[in-house]
Amino acid sequence: xxxxxxxxxxxxxxxxxxxxxxxxxxxxxxxxxxxxxxxxxxxxxxxxxxxxxxxxxxxxxxxxxxxxxxxxxxxxxxxxxxxxxxxxxxxxxxxxxxxxxxxxxxxxxxxxxxxxxxxxxxxxxxxxxxxxxxxxxxxxxxxxxxxxxxxxxxxxxxxxxxxxxxxxxxxxxxxxxxxxxxxxxxxxxxxxxxxxxxxxxxxxxxxxxxxxxxxxxxxxxxxxxx
Length: 226
Hints:
Number of helices: 5
GO molecular function, one term: hydrolase activity
Protein name: Calcineurin-like phosphoesterase
Strand content: 15-25%
Mean pLDDT: 97
CATH topology: Purple Acid Phosphatase, chain A, domain 2
CATH class: Alpha Beta
Low-confidence stretches: none
Number of domains: 1
Number of strands: 13
Structural class: alpha/beta
Distance between the termini: 5 Å
Pfam family, one: Metallophos
CATH architecture: 4-Layer Sandwich
Helix content: 10-25%
Shape: globular
Largest sheet: 7 strands, mixed
């Protein structure tokens, strides 16, 4: 089975995985996946709390997959070993937690997932670089090029798209005009005209809302895909 949900922000929003909120979790195995749409937040400061959280995920019966958001320590995240997994590149955090890198396509349960994390922090002026904010939150040209290369190999035909932020038109629909200058949305805009997909899931905006038949913003809601 594959489930998908929104931001977890380290330990702040993990209550969504409690047995009362996510009873399905009790019957899952390591061959089942829960995908987090960015701001995983457990790669942050190397603290005891971070170690506890990663062990907490490791002890869960399922495997946790996440795309990066804008609130990750990218210096630490990019130090993890890169591993080819199910067709795409990952950072393996531990035996049960993997970071799905930007611009990759993964085959899960016979379905194709395109991943493209990253987003702009609107509060970065209040943060300190390499302490609470990292410029790598915005995807690089190399990551954008990798996305186009991989999508081209699949003729831009994907089952599910998992990102942190969304294309500009969707951000406008959410009335989040403070996010409209995000270069990440501009990159996603370039992909949209050619993409053929079943559904696009994203986080970032701290709301759970089905925008239309093809786009859903997730926060605390957990949706089963297969």
